[in-house]
Every structure is written in structure tokens, then in C-alpha cells.
Amino acid sequence: MSDVTATKPAPAAKGMAGMVISDSSISFVDGAAGILEYRGHDIRQLAEHSSFEEVAYLLWNGHLPTAAELEEMRMESRSCRPLPGEIVTILRQLPNDASPTAVMRSSISILAHYDPESEDNSPAANRRKACRLLGQIAAVLAHFERIRNGHYPIEQRADLDHAANFLWMLNGAEPDPMAAKALDQYLLLLADHEFNASTFAARVTASTDSDLHSAITSAMGTLKGPLHGAAVQEAMVQFLEIGESSNVEPWFIKGKTTGRRVMGIGHRVYKVRDPRAEPLVHNLEMLVNATGERQWFDIARRLEEIAKEDPYFRDRNLSANVDFYSAPLLYSLGIPVDTFTCMFAMSRIVGWTAHVFEQMADNRLIRPQSNYVGPHDLPWVPIEERG
Questions:
Q1: Which one from 115, 267, 274, 355 is the annotated catalytic residue?
Q2: Beta strand 35-38 pairing with 41-42
Q3: pLDDT per position as a tens digit, 352-365
Q4: Which fold has domain 25-227+337-361?
Q5: Nearest to residue 111, comparing CAs of 144, 147, 92, 85?
Q6: Is 267 among the residues known to form the active site?
Q7: Where exactly does CATH 1.10.580.10 map onto the chain?
């Protein structure tokens, strides 16, 4: 007989809720106060004064760049944007109805085979690989979107910043400055968010001394889930179902009777309004005022107003999160709904890689324990006697 003491373990913290597993200096989240900081800088100040490329430098290097440092990074990132021709060939061979998120996940893994430093885990090599991935995953998305719609991929432009270049590759037209600015701010706002599920997945992989591409592939696979990155797509499906602002209240009332969840309301961490929501609202409002296309913005604002007054949402401190206004913003920019999660990844690639750098700099294998709740000391039963 085993000497295992069959004592009942203390309940595990489901989803590791409230557990602190590591120190980090990359981003700070205070869910009760509604604060998000990148390297000590409030997200709202960064949204007002910075660009996505500047925030990428901040997250990768730990400080805001000087003008010379930012220009050097811009030149470096634009020189390593192009995809290997073999990747474009592979994109042409994929089914047109393939999930764009799955295409991006697979492409990140395949890109390792064409990166000369894929197995080099030195800090300098990882920094260069991160820079390449930043441009390459944007190109994967734009090229696949054009290929699946029967168009030729469009070459990148070194004279455009990251957001404007993506719109150019996607549409083949000179990007509208306001649209490019709106996308740039979206990318800035989603670049990092502490130990979210996909970032944690990247750090777990990195903690095994695996390579950067493997870590980012893990992150991308995690982001694909509807409880994480795919939530923004579901938020837009919701707005499309509502259709008109006059339908918001009937839709909401009907949803309450059927127990339907309002996508984009509530957050695992924030108990107040997501600090990224207000910059997104401001940016989206400027965009719709310029274009006159207010439909999706007005639906979102009306739904948020109704939810704020509803006792269920009010008593549980459920407020608009980043997905709620990201969805109409991306849709207003002409981004296909099934690529919204990929747009999230285009931003979060900066945070993922920053966390891999940090994990590798002071590494210890991430290996949590579990509470075993199964039986002990079961007798062996020969196979012919099992029934």
C-alpha cells in the first residue's frame, strides 16, 4: 500500500487568478483604478503624444527614444519588412477560406525556417528577429487578404510608417492620413498588457530556452481563442447584428431575456472603464466625423450608455473594454472582420517580444504545480477482469 496521505488539497486559484509569478518592468495594470502604464508612462499620455513606432522602441529598450534613436529604429524596421518569396508562395497555396489568424500563426512558425538567426538566442539576435517579425506579420496579413480576394500582393513602401504601410499593402491606394493615424493609435494602445494569456504563453515557451519564433507561435495560438484575441471579432459581429442605433435597446432587452453576453463589456482585470477605451473613442469619433459614416460608432455609444444604466452591469462594475471600440474602429478602416484578431497580433507582437527578452534575461523554467484531486491507492485489475 502507498503511504500517500489522501488529504483534501486547498482549492486552486482557477485561471491563476490573483497569483504573481514574476517581476516585470514592462507594463503596469491597476484594474481598480483603471491605470495602464508602459514602462511607467500612462497609456493616455502615450496615446496623445506618441506613435506606435515610438512605443515599440519604449517597450523593447526601456525608455522613450531620442529623435536620433527613433530614426535609427525606423530605418532598421523598414529595411527588414519584406517577406521571403517562399512565404508568399505558401500563402498562395493555402485555402482562401482559411482562418487568417491560423494563417498568421502558421506563417510565424514557417518564417523561422527563412530567418538566418532563428536558432540564435543572443539578445542582439532576438532584437533583430523581433524587428523582422514586426514587419513580416503585417505583410502576411495584407498579402493573404489580397490573395484570397484574387488580387496580387503589393510591395511595401519604406517611406511610410508601420500603420500607413499596412493600409497601402492592404488596399493598394495612398492611405488617408487620418485613417493611418487612427490605426497607428490602435496599435499603440494594444501593444502590451502585463501577463495576459498570450504573453504568458510566450514567456512559458521562452522559459524552456526555446527560440523567439516558437515563443511567438505559442502566443499567436493562444490569442486565437474567443476568450482572448478573438473577442474583438465577436464584438463587431454583435454590432452588425444590431444594424442600426434604433435597434440597440430592443436588442439589449431581448439579449437579457435569453442570457446573451454583451461582447466588449467587462474585463478580467479592470473593474472600471478600460483606460484604453477613451483614447479609442476619441480617435474613432474624429474618424467618423471626417467621413460622416457614424453608424457603428453610434451603435457602440448607445449600447455602452444602456449597459451603464442597467443594474446588472452597474452593480458588477462591468464597463467597456478595449475590444468594444476597437471593433467599430477597425471596421471603419475597412479591415475585414475575420482579420481583427490578426490586427491585435500586429500590435501585441511588440509586447510579446519585449516579454521574451525580459524572460530570457533572467530566466527560470516556468513550472507551476497543480492540486491533484483524483483517487489514490487503486488496486490493479487484470485487463480480462475489467468491465
A1: 267
A2: antiparallel
A3: 999 999 999 999 99
A4: Citrate Synthase; domain 1 (1.10.580)
A5: 85
A6: yes
A7: 25-227+337-361
Q: Which of 115, 192, 211, 323 is catalytic?
A: 323
CATH code of the domain made up of 231-332: 1.10.230.10
pTM: 0.92
The grid coordinates of residue 213 equal 519564433
> How long a stretch of residues is the chain?
387
Give residue-wise pLDDT tens across range 245-291: 999 999 999 998 898 889 989 888 888 889 999 999 999 999 998 88
